[in-house]
């Protein structure tokens, strides 16, 4: 069984960033609106995620490490209609199988908190603990028992930038949640969680960018698009600065990126792209979920219509700012 977990870990847990992503998605699913992530040495030494979500009682805390013990909806094709980000019950057992993990959780005031310790997938201790409502997970010595995987990791800086990227995506998709990310005690970013996308953009990209952002608001019968865009001349950026969130999930879609770029009808200055955040609401039935959920690519029916809507709106914004 632990072998099965380690094999699953091969898919779910590629590097520290994937651990952080899974843990933070669990915090989001638990309804947290404050999430703190602290990593040490690129997350290779340790990853600590704490939240103020609903927490778990002792029994659930133990059950969480059983494979496929999800408390969430199980049907994969409902991916874009369900609210929860996790649904397979694989992440915690997988992460636990390749690290030393401590989970401390409390389901609320008056409830006893529990602390579960796992070492390479084996439960070593379950103790009483004290904490306010919510959950914290400490993952230490990632891949200590899978040396091949450990060797495959890149430099600390590379791992940090992967963590920051994936946290940035989650922050953009969840402006109502306050997210703090630190590395070796140094703050990388902190979003206020006040629901304002502009404040997330500020936290991730800085004041200069936030100040120049233009709001996007567009709608047709099928789509409602909000977001913001910054002219490419203003700041260094690459394609990955064009972010798309569909129904609260960060996705990748090449056609949408191209629609944004088409809207800028002059040649792009070298090394500069329009930093863009698009948050799109649509009927989940229009999202083709016949794709691997861990990969972010999705296909959309009515993609052409959506791209046209985005292109027109962005083109108008660019023109207006030039005038
Ligand atoms: P999944 O997210 O797919 O359900 P996980 O392995 O990530 O599977 O988590 C297993 C279960 O543990 C979740 O379904 C949830 O019930 C519980 N859980 C994990 N993390 C948290 C958390 N931060 N707060 C509350 N419950 C959690
Ligand atoms: Mg999960």
TrEMBL record:
Residues 201-319 form the DNA mismatch repair protein S5 domain. This protein is involved in the repair of mismatches in DNA. It is required for dam-dependent methyl-directed DNA mismatch repair. May act as a 'molecular matchmaker', a protein that promotes the formation of a stable complex between two or more DNA-binding proteins in an ATP-dependent manner without itself being part of a final effector complex. Belongs to the DNA mismatch repair MutL/HexB family. This is DNA mismatch repair protein MutL. It comes from Marininema mesophilum. The gene is mutL.
């Amino acid at each position: 069984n632990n072998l099965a977990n380690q094999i699953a870990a091969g898919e779910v847990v590629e590097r520290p960033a994937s651990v952080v992503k899974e843990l933070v998605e669990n915090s989001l699913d638990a309804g947290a609106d404050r999430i703190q992530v602290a990593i040490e040495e690129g997350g290779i030494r340790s990853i600590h995620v704490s939240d103020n979500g609903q927490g778990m009682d002792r029994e659930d805390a133990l059950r969480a490490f059983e494979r496929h013990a999800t408390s969430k909806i199980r049907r994969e094709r409902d991916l874009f209609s369900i609210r929860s980000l996790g649904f397979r019950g694989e992440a915690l057992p997988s992460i636990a199988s390749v690290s030393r993990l401590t989970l401390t959780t409390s389901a609320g005031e008056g409830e006893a908190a529990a602390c579960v310790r796992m070492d390479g997938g084996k439960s070593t201790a379950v103790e009483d603990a004290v904490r306010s409502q919510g959950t914290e997970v400490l993952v230490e010595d990632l891949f200590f028992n899978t040396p091949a995987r450990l060797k495959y990791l890149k430099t600390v800086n590379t791992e940090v930038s992967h963590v920051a990227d994936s946290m940035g995506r989650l922050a953009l998709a969840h402006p109502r949640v306050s997210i703090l990310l630190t590395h070796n005690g140094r703050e990388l970013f902190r979003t206020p969680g006040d629901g304002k996308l502009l404040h997330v953009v500020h936290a991730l990209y800085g004041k200069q960018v936030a100040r120049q952002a233009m709001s996007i608001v567009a709608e047709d019968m099928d789509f409602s698009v909000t977001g913001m865009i910054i002219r490419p001349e203003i700041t260094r950026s690459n394609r990955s600065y064009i972010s798309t969130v569909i129904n609260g999930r960060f996705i990748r879609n090449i056609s949408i990126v191209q629609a944004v770029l088409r809207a800028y009808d002059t040649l792009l200055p070298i090394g500069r792209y329009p930093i863009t955040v698009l948050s799109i609401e649509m009927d989940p039935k229009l999202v083709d979920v016949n794709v691997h959920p861990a990969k972010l690519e999705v296909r959309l029916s009515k993609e052409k219509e959506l791209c046209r809507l985005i292109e027109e709106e962005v083109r108008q914004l660019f023109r207006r700012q030039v005038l």
